[in-house]
């Protein structure tokens, strides 16, 4: 997220992230199991090349590029590691995401450079910067619809190969301690109601991780070192939910 109290971190627009192996992980887990699974993913995800055939593209903002966490901790990388460990012939993960991006920024990024349209899975998580910057919900709906259509196109025209994640709630982080937390949460819910409706209209998958993100209010280990973004441990929980949704479409 691009915030006035933090220097905006610059990342390249397109990352090709390479990984190899992880311990086999269950799709559902207790709090204690989550920590074990997270450690397994982090320990076994590296940057060694592979020759897999199943292509995964992740679109988004700071949560997708993993601001303030290591590459291996990013949720798309953890998701791919889980899938590879479970026998899916995963190729390199590709990420188009940058800290501070709104829906408009992501539209420009996907339209401004050539991107393959034969991905086996495309995930989309975008909107927190629209909310933070006070952009209208009406504009968000229009631009999110454009991004859904673009995601389907990138997934070879297959809506069931597109996976939308809800916007997490940063009101629970230390950064928001001096803000109107209830107002932030309310607006995040409004944006999520909109993106869920649009996702349903286009018959793409929808993963609601917002309530999970709110657990950071009572668990500091779920927050990254910057006090704003989420940690690799929190991203592991999302990955453990996303990977089983993707797996049937990556056979």
Report the order of strands and helices.
EHEHHEHEHHEHEHH
Q: How helix-rich are the residues, as a percent range?
A: 40-55%
User: How would the global form be characterised?
Assistant: globular
Low-confidence stretches: 3-49
Q: Give me the side-by-side strand order of the main sheet.
A: 1-3-2-4-5-6
Rg from Cα: 17 Å
What is the tally of beta strands? 6
What portion of residues belong to β-strands?
5-15%
Number of helices: 9
Distance between the termini: 35 Å
Biggest β-sheet: count, sense, barrel?
6 strands, mixed
Q: What average pLDDT do the residues reach?
A: 85
Structural class: alpha/beta
Give a verbal description of the structure:
Helices cover 40% and strands 12% of the residues. It is globular and about 45 Å long. It starts with 13 loop residues before the first strand and ends in a 5-residue tail after the last helix. It is built from 9 helices and 6 strands. The chain is α/β, with parallel strands linked by helices. Helix 3 crosses helix 9 (232-246). The chain has a 6-stranded mixed β-sheet, sandwiched between helices. Strand 5 (162-165), helix 7 and strand 6 form a beta-alpha-beta unit. Residues 3-49 have low confidence and may be disordered. The protein has helices at residues 31-44, 62-65, 75-85, 103-111, 128-132, 137-154, 181-201, 210-213, 232-246, and strands at 14-17, 54-60, 90-97, 121-125, 162-165, 205-207.
